[in-house]
Design brief:
Layout lengths: L3 H10 L6 E6 L4 E3 L2 H7 L3 E5 L5 E5 H12 L6 H12 L1 E5 L6 E3 L2 H7 L4 E7 L4 E5 L7
Antiparallel strand pairs: 1-7, 2-6, 3-4, 3-5, 4-8, 7-8
Length: 140
């Protein structure tokens, strides 16, 4: 497994997701990313709903690294199995933005998160982007 110094070098040399912005999910379930966040994610990217029910977006490279680390577990416990199930079941790969920087949040992920039409906060978490409904933003 990668040591802390190697992990830091990897983060320093890749595109980082930084900052905070507001966005709107439209009536078709589309969300428009600010250009800097769209560029940092790359094309295509992965959407995942975490155990708290929040939607996050990951570059394919970062997602592959994170899931590879998770797969290195010895799968001896039910908890390990649940973690891998959550990574697979609540993820959607090959997400792409259109020319206006919009992407559709798949309906099954909207169901997992409870995201509906309206305002959201986009928060750069260095390795990924977190999407929080505006009404919950102060709680994250």
């Amino acid at each position: 497994m990668e040591n802390i110094a190697a992990s830091r070098r990897r983060i320093e040399t890749k595109r980082q997701l930084l900052g905070h912005d507001e966005a709107v999910i439209d009536d078709k379930g589309r969300l428009r990313l600010p250009k800097k966040m769209e560029e940092a994610l790359g094309k295509p990217f992965v959407l995942w709903v975490n155990k708290s029910g929040l939607l996050s977006a990951w570059s394919e490279e970062e997602w592959e690294w994170q899931t590879a680390r998770a797969s290195e577990t010895n799968m001896q416990s039910e908890e390990d199995d649940e973690m891998l199930r959550a990574l697979g079941e609540r993820a959607e790969a090959n997400i792409k933005c259109d020319a206006q920087g919009r992407f559709v949040i798949p309906s099954r992920l909207r169901e997992f998160t409870g995201l509906k039409e309206g305002e959201v906060e986009l928060i750069g978490m260095v390795t990924h982007l977190k999407t929080i409904p505006k009404r919950q933003a102060g709680k994250a």
